Amino acid sequence: MVPGFNCDFVGACDQHKPDSCTSLSFMLADLVKQLEDGLPEVLEIWVRQYLHTSHLALQDISRHEANALFLQLIKVVGTKLCTLDERGGATRFSEAETSALVKSLTDITAKGADVVQVVHCIKMMRVALEQYTRGVAASENHKSLMLNLLHCVTDCLEISMITRWQAVKNRDEGAIEPQIVIGPSTYKCIFESTSNLVLITDEAGLILEVNPIVHIAFSGERLAGRFCGELLQIEGELESILSMYPPDTNNELTIEVAGIRKTYNLQIRLLSRLYPLARGFLFILNDITCAVDHRQLLEQRVKERTRALAKSEKLLDSIFQSVGKGILLLDSELEVVQANRMASEMYGVPLEVLIGSYYQSFTDEQGFLVMSKTCRELEEGEVLRVESQSLYVDGRKFPALITVTSMTLDNRTFWPLIVSDHCCLTNNNVITDK
């Protein structure tokens, strides 16, 4: 605010005289609360108004900054509105009351906006709040109070900004405060120094600006005004590109750059998400070729090891099935969890039935007790031979010599049993002896 400058708001309350000052304050406070709650809609009205004007140099004002401006404006008007009494009277806006708003508007000039654009911003803020205020749940008198104060304070802001601009203009250019150029310089430095490929396009996807790394990567190619999909080797219109690579998500994109196939992490950002007046897109491509190549190498190794393991398992299963003795693998419940074909033939039970059966089905009571005791007492790695009666599927018994050992796998204990028909062994020995 210009020192010593005040705006008077006279007689605004003369027509509205409530029963009590308390009820008036309460109703006016509710009106202010509705404006604060409706800020997202107010902001959209403000954006629409801007799109119908030519003052778009403020499109780099962020959504956060725009929200803060509106909140400050509502606070200034709302604070004064809620102090009105039933008699109305003159209302003045002091420099202290508007200092925060003036500071925020002055910061906008650091982004390169001139006084005409800032004043236009103030006018569009007033228009947006006016349009929204007409639809809130409040009496016409209260809305009138609100709008009169709004006009008063925005007029003050416009005069203050013009006066400040004129004062700066009269100074020597070297005396301009350095913070006016710090903000844009910082952002431009980041834009130019990042190793990512960065493209800024308009709302149709045509390239407006790129950072130096893009010029290097696509040396000799036309960039300005080119459709982003053509440069990034993505087929289809902008709508299909946004469908394949939705904004604010991470996607892999493989393209040929300078004759080399490279893979990038692609992020697309809507500029309007951060800067409500901006219409267009930000394409950020981070080179992840090395990471992808490493991942593919690991995947290839996993595939090769899986194939090798499958071959090993097939070989072991072939050996397991071809052994000339019956093999049973029992778990802690003495259930058969694996068996070979010879065991199936020895007991006369199909392999698919044998697996899943309990060992007690293939021996007598004494044989089951002996095997249970042996498995409980057997130390890991220890090998014992047990003679036991085994049962054929029709109930016939045959003597068997069973070799038992113990093993632990995945913290579970198993007992492999190698079963030999004792009769066959005896007969073979007799023939050999002869």
Account of the 3D structure:
- This protein has 434 residues and is of the alpha+beta class.
- The chain contains 16 helices and 13 strands.
- Strands 8, 9, 10, 11, 12 and 13 form a 6-stranded antiparallel sheet that branches. Strands 4-3-7-6-5 form a 5-stranded antiparallel sheet.
- Helix 3 runs antiparallel to helix 4 and helix 4 (95-109) packs across helix 6.
- The radius of gyration is 43 Å and the shape is elongated.
- Mean pLDDT is 78; it is low at 1-21, 86-90, 172-184 and 429-434.
* pLDDT averaged over residues: 78
Q: How many individual β-strands?
A: 13
Structural class by helix and strand composition: alpha+beta
What is the share of helical residues? Answer: 40-55%
Number of helical runs? 16
Which consecutive residue ranges, at least 5 long each, have pLDDT under 50? 1-21, 86-90, 172-184, 429-434
Q: Which of globular, elongated, flat, extended, rod-shaped describes the shape?
A: elongated
How would you spell out the order of helices and strands? Answer: EHHHEHHHHEEHHHEEHEHEEHHHEEEEH
Q: What percent of residues are in strands? A: 15-25%
Give the quaternary arrangement of the chains: single chain
How large, in whole angstroms, is the Cα Rg? Answer: 43 Å
**Largest sheet descriptor:** 6 strands, antiparallel
For the termini, the CA-CA separation is 125 Å
